Every structure is written in structure tokens, then in C-alpha cells.
Amino acid sequence: MVKEKSLKKKVGAGVCDFCGNSQPFCYFCTHCGLTICQSCFIENQRMFTRSGVTWVCPSCLNWETL
Question: Do the beta carbons of residue 17 and residue 35 sit within 8 Å?
Fold first, then answer.
């Protein structure tokens, strides 16, 4: 029996939880569903990432890859 892995969306169009605007490119937390647009992510980059490869969701503290 083969289990199908359910993949949650990590990037795509959505409404940013920080600025409230609908954006064509957003990052999504696969754990809690937090959405952040690319411009808010860049403005607050020091809050989310140190390495530029992973980011920490400020809502649930889950590590995500970019």
C-alpha cells in the first residue's frame, strides 16, 4: 500500500496577513496557514530569517524553507 503525501502550498497568490492586501506572490506557513507577501517579507526580513534559506513563522514558530 502506497501512502500519498499531502503537500500544502508554500507559495502562491493570497491575502497578506501583515498588510491585508491581495498579492500575486505570498509565502504560506504549512503549519498554521499564516500568509505574508514578498514585500512585507523583505521589509521585515530580519524578523523572519537569518540564513535566507529558511524562515520562522511568527505565529506558530514553525520553520519553513523558501
Answer: yes
Phi, psi (degrees; rounded to nearest 5) at 24:
-75, -20
Q: What is the CA radius of gyration of the chain?
A: 13
Write the CA distances from 15 to 3, 23, 38, 53, integer angstroms: 32, 6, 11, 23
DSSP state of 9: P
Q: What is the tens place of the pLDDT at every residue in 7-61?
A: 677 899 999 999 999 999 999 999 999 999 999 999 988 888 888 789 999 999 9
Angle at 37 between CA 59 and CA 21, to 5 degrees: 100
40 CB burial (10 A radius; 0-12, 13-18, 19+): buried
**Is this model's pTM higher than 0.85 or not?**
no
